[in-house]
Write a structure and sequence with these properties.
Length: 180
């Protein structure tokens, strides 16, 4: 719980320069994070299943929710036409790389120690920040760096610490009338 209390200000530091124009979006992001964590725990327990079956299931569930969102929420006109060759190629590329990434993630959680896999997956946050800083005009501000550290350091600490070993419950001694 201490790690959670430290990470919450980290989210604030990352979000602080921007106004939250849609609190529902923030709630949905937090809900998504919760369900993702449950799914990652489940991946290790499903290691006996084919990773492809799991990825198909994840994709089907995501498609159902995306279709529901398409029909439930107002759509603003987009300036991108998805039937244009460049946009279509980029969309297909994202789909292929996301599918490959999901297969690799499923295999990693199925074959490795989930705690260690989770810690390694934290590197994607740092890598994404570095790539954004190099390839986009967006400036990397101090509050984003501090916020990221407030999230990653407690998370890594919780994941890497050794669990307390519980002593086994001693068995009851045999009764006097039972043979040893």
């Amino acid at each position: 719980w201490l790690a959670v209390l430290i990470a919450i200000p980290g989210v604030y530091f990352i979000q602080a320069p921007q106004e939250i124009s849609n609190p529902l979006a923030v709630l949905m992001a937090l809900t998504s994070a919760l369900f993702t964590s449950v799914a990652m725990i489940g991946l290790h327990k499903l290691k006996h299943l084919s990773p492809y079956a799991i990825v198909v299931h994840f994709s089907a569930v995501a498609s159902v929710f995306a279709a529901c969102a398409f029909f439930l929420f107002d759509l603003e006109p987009s300036h991108v036409q998805f039937y244009e060759p460049e946009a279509f190629t980029l969309l297909v590329g994202v789909g292929i790389t996301a599918s490959l990434g999901q297969v690799m993630l499923t295999r990693a959680f199925g074959s490795g120690d989930p705690v260690k896999v989770s810690v390694v997956s934290l590197s994607q946050v740092v890598l994404t920040m570095l790539l954004e800083w190099v390839f986009t005009p967006r400036q990397l501000h101090w509050n984003a760096i501090v916020g990221t550290l407030l999230i990653l350091v407690p998370t890594g600490w919780v994941m890497l610490r050794k669990p307390k070993v519980r002593s086994p419950i001693p068995e009851d001694p045999p009764a006097f009338d039972e043979p040893m």
